[in-house]
User: Fold this.
Amino acid sequence: MFAAVADLLLAPVQLAIYLLFVLALVETGRLVVQCLLRLRGREAFRSFIGARTGAVGPGYPIARLHAEDKALTVDDLDLAAMKRLELIRIATRITPMLGLIATLIPMGPALLALTKNDVAQMSELLRSAFSAVVLALAASCLAFWVSSVRRRWCAEEVLAVRRRLEARP
Assistant:
């Protein structure tokens, strides 16, 4: 009975791994674009922090929120940063777990095929199992990198806004 339920989970788990891998690729691309926008808008951000102007480019989403709505507190900006990072942080954590599930489910039938000397079926099941874990780990690595860089950027922006608010008379 447990084996039947586990077998039913394999296809949805593999689909989730594929989708999370695509998400990681998309988010990596978005990170590269944001990096370019941050480089292009660095002077505007410095001017904003120095309280000389109020415009901030799209590469600085947290500071831009503050520029658009001065009523937002630093806590509101912290919450906005957490919301912005939530999906990629979840992907970072669940993708390796899904990879493990997608690895273990075919292992039972692979071992059963080994006992029957069906090397072809065993090798196909093992190939499927290890391919899933490799894809999951690759997705998790990309997601972790994106999450780490974005977390640092958000922290820098929140800190800069906090300093700007503290510098006001």
The helical segments are 2-40, 42-49, 61-68, 74-115, 119-167.
